[in-house]
Amino acid sequence: MMRDQNLLSVKNLRTYFYTEDGVVKAVDGVDFEIKKGETLGMVGESGCGKSVSALSIMRLIPMPPGRIVEGEIYFKGEDILKISEVAMRKIRGRDISMIFQEPMTSLNPVYTVGNQISEAITIHQGLNRKDSWDKAIEMLRQVGIPDASKRAKEYPHQMSGGMRQRVMIAMALSCNPELLIADEPTTSLDVTTQAQILDLIGKLQEEFKLSVLIITHNLGIVAEVADKVAVVYAGKVVEYAKTDEIFSHPLHPYTIGLLRSVPRLDMKKKDKLQTIEGEVPDSLTFPSGCKFHPRCFLCQEKCRTKEPPLIKAENGRLVRCWRYNEI
What is the CATH number for 22? Predict the structure, then answer.
């Protein structure tokens, strides 16, 4: 596949959860693309739909109560929402792998980390038990775990958070996937370990020619690793652009608010961090019109009644805001 072709294309994705209280529209019209070898950062506050978007791509939404009600997810030109579960199992873990948000709960506590990695290798690559074990040890070495042959025989609780995260990365890359989804890969890690994990993902991306979808609320991580950024709010992409464009000239008021709330090196002691007023809306009772309008410092009357589409603005950037359309 050529660099200029999309490895993954997500179009109008809608994933809802049907509960006793009503329909939760966790993802309500998400669009983005990832090219071969490219890194896309997906950012937004907790509860905006980032992780549900990732689980939808993997087809790991619990049904019931969840259901992908609309949309297309093209992977290498094929809509993987239309293939059978048997066919999806062959893609999941082999062609598309995911690093889950919390390694302690994602790893099985009653199996050694070596067994958990080698099992995936056996299933997807058909190697025998010994060869799968040897490759599992090699993967632990590649992610920087010392004395890998000994560590492979340990259980998750015997490892630190950083080590468990490295095990998750080793497992995700053990079958040489083309797309790696990293959901908050540095959550709960100290800043030194965070830097090591990000450096490791970058190094392995270069080595294995990976495409990466990195999901985070940390704009610093996005600035460091992403080629493009999708800003998500209330289940929708509200801005989509190259990383340098997002940071140098954000368009959507929500993106502007996120960037204003990040500490800067040039800040003085008397300076205060700005915050985005209000709270993330309840997904059961989204406001009418633009979902961000109750918190928006640039809100106009039309914003309260009619939801803006995702439109092309300057330089082909995408933004969901009436300021860039006819009011």
Answer: 3.40.50.300
Q: Does residue 158 fall inside a structural domain?
A: no
- pLDDT, one tens digit per residue, over 19-64 is 999 999 999 999 999 999 899 999 998 888 999 999 999 999 998 8
Q: Taking the mean position of all CA atoms in its chain, how far away is CA 299?
A: 29
Q: Which residues are CB-neighbours of 111 under 8 A, at least 6 positions away? A: 155
Residue 127 lies in a domain: no
CB 320 within 8 Å of CB 252: yes
Q: What pTM was estimated for this model as a whole?
A: 0.86
Please give the helix or strand (H or E) that residue 200 lies within, else none.
Answer: helix 191-208
